[in-house]
Amino acid sequence: MKTRLLLPALLLCLPLAACSNGESNKADPAAGKPVVDADSIGGKVKAATDKARVEIAQGNINISNDQAEKAEITPQGDLLINGKAVTVDAHQRALLLDYRKQVEALAGAGMDIGVAGASLGVKAAGEALRGVFSGDTQGIEEKVNAEAAKIEASAKKLCGLLPVMMAKQQALAAALPAFKPYATMDQSDIDDCHS
């Protein structure tokens, strides 16, 4: 992408940069991570993802897509179909809990990528504004591309979780017939993630 095309796109993010309160410049030395101001865009995104992580960890996970019957896995490893618990043995419960952990890991990785993407948008807009006002637009594309490459690497790691998830889903479907209609993942999902 040429810088002349990058600047107009980044300028569209001006409202985000104006609301960012300089959050990308702060760091928590102990954690090695940026400190995010709770009132900033990044802070609001982080608060929302933190809330979602708690809900995923403590609530039921919906595993039904377009099926007529709603299916969920509880934190205790119960399979609920339309709110009614399916009878499971200890082995099936262990598989349900293992699959649930994989879903949580995948959701967490996806949220991390979302937060990183939002932060990149704010940072890119800030860089563009600094470049416009200083007259120095050199290096903006390289800085943004370097950050985008980190996000892409994280996305590839997320895609790397999918084969394990599919294997766990298939094992669970083989052990628990009631789960089989919800085991819809196939190789095309993995292939699509990598493209």
Mean pLDDT: 76
What structural class do helix, strand and pairing data support? Answer: alpha+beta
Counted by DSSP, the helix tally is 6
Radius of gyration: 21 Å
Biggest sheet strand line-up: 3-4-5-6
In total, the number of strands is 6
Which residues sit in consecutive blocks of at least 5 with pLDDT less than 50?
1-35
The percent range for helix content is 55-70%
Distance between the termini: 19 Å
The biggest beta sheet reads:
4 strands, antiparallel
How many separate domains? 1
Return the string of H and E elements.
Answer: HHEEHEEEEHHH
Globally, the shape reads elongated
Q: How big a fraction of the residues is strand? A: 5-15%
What does this structure look like?
The structure is a single chain. With 195 residues, this protein is an alpha+beta fold. The chain has six helices and six strands. The strands form two sheets. A four-stranded antiparallel beta sheet has the order 3-4-5-6, with helices on one face. Strands 1-2 form a two-stranded antiparallel sheet. A hairpin with a 5-residue loop joins strand 4 (71-73) and strand 5 (79-81). Helix 3 (41-58) runs antiparallel to helix 4 and helix 4 (90-134) packs antiparallel against helix 5 (140-175). The longest helix is centred in the middle third of the chain and has 45 residues, at 90-134. The radius of gyration is 21 Å and the shape is elongated.
Index terms:
195 residues, four-stranded antiparallel beta sheet, 6 helices, disordered N terminus
